[in-house]
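# step 3/5: fold
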Amino acid sequence: MVRVNRSASLLGSNDNLERSGVYTASEARRIATKWVSSWLQDGNLSFGLPEVDDRYGAWRVTMLDVPLGKPVGELMISCKDGTVLQASDPAVILRRLGSTDGNHSEFKLSLYEQSVTPKGDRICLGDARVILKALPEVTTQLVITSPPYFNAKLEYSEYADYDEYLKLLEEVCAQCHRVLSEGRFMVVNASPVLVRRPSRNRSSTRIPVPFHINTLMEKLGFDFVDDIVWVKPTGAGWNTGRGRRFAADRHPLQYKPVPVTEYFLVYRKHTEKLIDWNLRTHPDQDVVGASRIEDGYEVTNVWYEKPANHPVHPAIFPENIIRKLIRYYSFVGDIVMDPFAGIGTVGHAALAEKRGFFLIDSNESYYKIMRQKLLG
């Protein structure tokens, strides 16, 4: 049984570190050991091979479950002074080590703080699986979302394994299907995820998340419509570390291209009715006319756009892409929903395109940012 010293400061172990630079993997592992020992005792936990992440100037150290050899968390340690820059949530690590059952909390809706404007725009703090169940059917006309990465960023490392991650997506997407109007659209942003190698004698893996999401969506009753490919500048993918070994050695079999694309997978809620039916039966034909797409629209499914940045959120949508998706897949006045809203880019884009929004996120910091910027 894992025992935890709950009175210990989780990051307090940085105070007495040497400040002369962390240049070797053994030094990085020593710092990781000191950090873990401040809150964990007698745990079956070891460390994988530390690797330098050039983008952040930091060592990434994987924590492993000793009996199974499976990753349970990760630390980012500054190469400059040994400071722990980021770390997986200790509660998540303990759950992965077997101290809890891993079930998500089924809170009552009354525990969720909700904000509503007179026009009906809404921002909710909480678990989308719970909040969406309380919505009546056919309350949303478009869903655009980017599910949290599976363990690609420390902020999102909250899943015991990939099956648990897919179960979360299935539960949320099933509720999105239920609340969508007939024949309307859902757009999911996703890309393959690189899981770093836990030790020198094991390879990294790249999980084809978009293709698994497609299987899930079709199972839930969505029809696949399009795959829009978002192309980033060439240098955007070098932080993943892919391609460096091949660039140095040029041996066959080692080739790994640097990823600079993501998918926006477009689905329509299954119906026997054609899209023309949605146009003909819209209750306000003046709105249909006002929603016509102007010249300069995207002709192909390859869209070029620089990534967006924010000091609080590690992976936000480029608003320009979201505004295009809203124009192409909804009418003026429709409600656009994002069950993993982050800092609310979908809400900003919806307002700019004269649509309403319904946003959900479980992160309180993101919720506060959305409240401030969208509801004033």
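# step 4/5: annotate
The two ends are 48 Å apart (CA to CA).
# step 5/5: archive (pending)
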